[in-house]
Amino acid sequence: MSPVMTVTPFALRNIRLFIAFRIFFNARFYYPVFTILFLDFGLTIEQFALLNTVWAITIVAAEVPSGALADILGRKYLIVATSCLMVAEMCILAFIPLGNGQVIFWAFLVNRVLSGLAEAMASGADEAIAYDSLKAKGLHGGWPEVLSLQMRLRSVASIITMTLGALAYDPNVVNRILEWLSLPVVLSQQTTMRFPIYLTLILAILALITALRLEETPRKKHPGEGFQTLEALRLTVQAGAWIARTPFALAVILFGMCYDHVLRMIVTMTSQYFRLIHLPDGSFGIIASAMALLGLFAPKIAERMAKSNTPLVNIAWLSGITLLGLFGLSGFFPYFGLLPMALIFVAMLFVSFFTSHYLNMIADSDQRATVLSFNGMAFNLAYGLIGFLFAVLMARLRATGTVAHPDWEEIAVANAAFQQAIGWFPWYCLACLGLTFGYFWLRRRAPGMELTTTAPGLADRSRIQG
Questions:
Q1: Which residues contact 210 (CB under 8 A, 6 or more apart)?
Q2: Could you read off the pLDDT of 240-298 as tens digits, one per residue?
């Protein structure tokens, strides 16, 4: 008898293309110098904050409608559109002329809107087309392995792009390389600061090529295809109602939201935190690459946890890791403060893995992208809220510090306020988790409340759907 050939998820072309798309779309060369890049173009810190607020609002506004359109028109259309938006947003930064501050601000505003639309349209659509490809072949049980591998490969890509991006941004490094090559050219910061952008534009073009090669899995047609806008609204309401009456789906989204917005807020402020634990600015790129190395190991651990633990056990582990990291950060230990920051990055990877794993497991194919988009919208709403609360808290602590220490310099007052504000994070996270646990404790007898069900049992969707 001839041996039986076992088909793995990675034998499917769509799965390989999904992983490639995730890498090209997410691994951006300018991430290590993101804030500095805006400032070197001539923008102020206030304009930088405003532009990122516009970015977050755009994602929230477009998240769910784009997911519904993906479920109606097809996921491939949305992924291709996402890639085109990425190409457009990078072209704006690559070719905008310098010198006119007003023109630069409006160009960056358009860039942030396009970037927010791209993020929203990519959210859910790429996962949905990949998961449906597995399901069509009866291989959806291999989704954790797919998630694990793509996260690890993205980490490798991030290490490479962040390292090269930081080096390409630095005119001293670039000019030393040119000198070593015996090229009589000396480049300024205004020239080299675009190099990470040019490199990311290449990735955007590769993402577009990858998106065009994806194949849509045939799905159930929705009625009223001539009225896509009304159908998108109907599907959005339908998916929202399904989440509301499906306690397990609601639990995944709410618990994930508790962790995600706190962790993301911390990560956006890493450079200021690193300065206050006495790390030199020049080390930030190396540290970012080192943190990305965690992505080589954490997804594999999350994969094993998803297969062997109940959701409640995984929530407990995630709560422990998150709170340990947050309490550790509040100590601002010189140099050793990197250890709790590493826990923050691990917790973020776990949140991403578990929410994707559990939501894809229970959502129907015809509304999967919409459900995943609801998850993304909830995460971004919470992120916007904590950003506002943090700004208010910082303003109050700064004012209090100025009154209490009139002899201090402004930078000293700001640093002290920042340290006090970070100290609020573990208690805020505990309050969010306490409220969420309390809500689901009250609903513990509701049909479908299966947080303690073993992982294999979750495959029986009739038990967890409302």
A1: 17, 20, 21, 24, 83
A2: 788 877 888 888 888 999 999 899 888 877 777 887 888 765 566 678 778 877 877 88
Diameter over CA atoms, the chain: 87
- Say which CATH topology domain 8-215 has: Growth Hormone; Chain: A; (1.20.1250)
Do 8-215 and 225-466 come out as alike in CATH topology? yes
- Nearest CA to 357 out of 151, 210, 217 is that of 151
**How far lies 358's CA from each of 246, 249, 345, 459, in Å?**
13, 8, 20, 10
Structural domain boundaries of the chain?
Answer: 8-215, 225-466
d(CA 442, CA 462): 22
Q: Which of 28, 15, 306 is nearest to 135 (CA)?
A: 15
* Orientation angle between helical segments 75-95 and 101-122, nearest 10 degrees: 160
Which two structure tokens, joined as six digits, stand for 121? Answer: 């349209």
Asked whether the beta carbons of 197 and 18 are under 8 A apart, the reply is no
Question: What was the pLDDT predicted at 228?
Answer: 53
Q: What architecture (CATH level 2) is domain 225-466?
A: Up-down Bundle (1.20)
At residue 182's C-alpha, the angle toward residues 180 and 185, to 5°, is 100
The helix/strand/coil state of 225 is coil
Which pLDDT score, from 0 to 100, does residue 68 have?
64
- pLDDT tens per residue, range 438-465: 888 876 666 555 554 444 444 444 334 4
